[in-house]
Design brief:
eight-stranded parallel β-sheet; TIM Barrel; alpha/beta; globular
Amino acid sequence: MTIPIIDAHQHFWNPDGGGYSYPWLSGPFQPIRRAFAPDDLRADLEADGISATVLVQTQNSLDETRDFLRLAEATDFVAGVVGWVDLTDPAVAETLDALRSGSGGRWLVGVRHLLHEEDDPAWILRPDARQGLEAVAAAGLAYDLVGTTAHLPAMARIVAEMPRLRFVLDHIAKPDIAAGVMEPWRSLVRQVAAHREHVWCKLSGMITEADWTRWKPSDLQPYIAHALAAFGVERCMFGTDWPVCLVAGSYRDVVAALGAALGDLDSEQHAQIMGGSAIAAYRLPQFS
């Protein structure tokens, strides 16, 4: 069976009419301060032969998660939603049950919290957050880890302590590609990858960590190569981080840059990264 190509990381938003605040969509991000909806992405998916996507939260908001689940129900190419719940809420298990039994609930495949918005880079290790992660594991969902190099020590510890939970490291933990910095990112990623039996890594969000105006695919290659060496092909997945990526390049640019970095892989390995890993990590209902 041919493995479909799946963009494992994309967003939708409407900063001026959706009822949510996007303060970061200013300054250099002002060009993408507009609504992005399914019809804005469809042509790019078709042009690159991409069958489906995973829609990922942008707000620590239950309302957004409910909106995304309803949108997934109505959108043919959204194969799963990574939403948000308050991990520190003692009733988080009940909240997850309510989301899954509500409109579009079958599309909930994972949970994410914007760790980089917390003052404490070790927030994920708090006992109340840990209790929430236990509820995510019990619900059979994945948990996306989003942060920077500063968050990797806590990420390495939590994945070591929670082998029952499937984790996905977003954006290869956002290394400083523009400055060509490898350490301590490289060593810390290796610590996370030591638990790759239940941890995946998204090869996504990289061009926005590079020099937006002068980056080239070769700038990304050392970081992609390290992620592949640390996690293995079977634990790495393709994602674009659209529409965030648009500040630094087009959807086609992102796909082409990853394709260039994966040029030495055989067709089976390429298919695993471009779709198989996302299906396995998120247990996408459409393809599982």
